[in-house]
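ugh finaly. both done.
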Amino acid sequence: MTRSPHTLFLISSASLFFSGIILLSYRAYGWELLPMLGLLILYISTKNNRSVVSLFLFFLIGFLTFQCATGWMNGWEILKETKILLNRSFLLFILFALAVSQWIAKGKVRLYMTLPDWSKRISMPSQTISLPLFLLIGLAGSSTIFIPLIWSEGISELKSLFLFAIGFTILNATLEELIWRGVMLSSLIQNTSVVYAITVTSIGFGLLHLSIGIPLLLSLLFSFGGLFYSIVVLKTDSIYPSIAFHMVMNMGMVLNGWIN
């Protein structure tokens, strides 16, 4: 099946975007210039898709700043927990870069900063269910992250981790959701198909976990989390439920000792 030039352009842009995330995650800064240069060439060569390419390019610029700031911070003699919290706060560099991209492109970002309509019914493959039930099912699924704690013997350690876990979950879940669902998803949906927007943001969300030392295969599995959060945002027309579910997952990851 022959793909249209528009489709090939979007696939090429996404491929360069993913390559940039991977190379920056491994701090291959010299090689990173190649996907950024490729995106710049695509930006110059088109008029119809500049907002999409600009979004990808400025994301990588923000991510490069994030990585440089993190590398600089690693030389500081501070507590490990403080380093982790600062690392998460540096996600603001990516968010700022995306804001600049949208300002240049004169694009409108929804952010989905509206409260859910609790009377809404959610369409499922064979039926509809109420929004509260939909969110309850999502919360139950997210809460399975706490199951390993049942067999944990370090209850006292969990208590000492709790304050750190709260800080981490608020910073990480809120900023990641604003980046991937609030800006990236809403912007891409305005200029591409819903399927493309969900696919790119979900894979990109997964790959970004390479930067915190998570292996490639496991990072790709995180893409399913991005897919779930995207569906929640689009079904509820609100970012708040996805932030809440993301917080639950992050809290479980910290208390299970998976974030260190």
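ok and the 2nd:
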Amino acid sequence: MTRIDHTSRRLIVAASVATCAALLAGCTSEADGTTTATSTTASTSTSTSTSAPPAQVRSATPRLALTYAGGILVVDAESLSLVGQSTLDGFNRLNPAGDERHVIVSTADGFRVLDTGTWSEAHGDHSHHYTAAPALTDITFDAAKPGHVVRHAGRTVLFDDGTGRIESFDAAGLAGGKPETSTFTTPHPHHGVAVELADGGLITTIGDEKSRTGIVVLDAARNEVTRNEQCPGLHGEAVAAGEAVAFGCQDGLLIYRDGAITKVTSPDPYGRIGNQAGSEESTVVLGDYKSDPNADLERPQRVSLTNTVTGELRLVDLGTSYTFRSLGRGAFGEALVLGTDGKLHVLDPTSGAVLRTVPVIDPWTEPQEWQTARPALFVQGFTAYVTDPATNRIHAVDYEKGQVTTTAELPHSPDEITGVRG
């Protein structure tokens, strides 16, 4: 794909977003503005404070949520100014809920729902968009040990590692409170994951407290369709174009596509792919790649690019290490990797060619414990967001133009990051 193609498609996407924003605002408009870099921290509104009635705005308000030791920050995704803060103890993890408004927070007691404070409301022939102070809601999905959260085909699926219970729902229902859910429980509790398909089918992992060995595919009535147990140490999932779903193994991947499961074998006897990032714009799945089974903490420098149609697995040497929070996908399926060299590496997912590298932060070293904060990558639209716990900063990067566009200081050291489009 050429740069001209990317530019043309970017204009089309921008025009579509502008049209949607105009519809949300009852066909009103306002002049575009340019965000300049800032290190000023905006005033904070907490989830327990009293706020004025929601103010109508003229366009969608994308926001980011970031955990820190003791709570969650919510910032404006365009200006990076702080708009809200909620206190929450413990080690918490974040995932978009799927409705571009709420965020699922994995806590010690279950899955809690954070409202980022931006939503739309319809009145007759017009729609209006409002913002308010972000807050943790009373909506909770019970779980003994909250695990993976997966969004696909309009459904959000929660996996409870402690019981093997799978709970799925339509995220649009969160606007009215806790939505109706459907449940399924695996034969044995394990650190697993599940994906609900467009036809109502379900793919879930096979495992127990000691091991994970593969996946099973169920139809909408939860009858078994097919399974594959040739995936030792299964971990992680990603959905690619054509509803291909990839699951990582210690020796490659399992790919479900068009009703069949295919095993893709790593070029090394031990070639672990435990974290993946997919895109509906690409048939290729980006994954990590570790080849030393004896390493206490392997710091790999190669990433994997696996074609879910042909089964081809390509390894790309970045010349720098990265971590499980370093993988992302661009608007057109670009493979993005945040290296410990402090640079954002943008790869062509088909050829593996490095399109560009963007200096963002200072070089850093992966901490020994996986729960310890380290720089993290989150991609939304044409912007890659990079956190820097060492400096309490967040950076917005235009990964196509290859430049940092905005930087802001945060009141706390950031850990996990996710976002919503508003």
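summary for the 2nd one i guess: The chain is about 5% helix and 45% strand.
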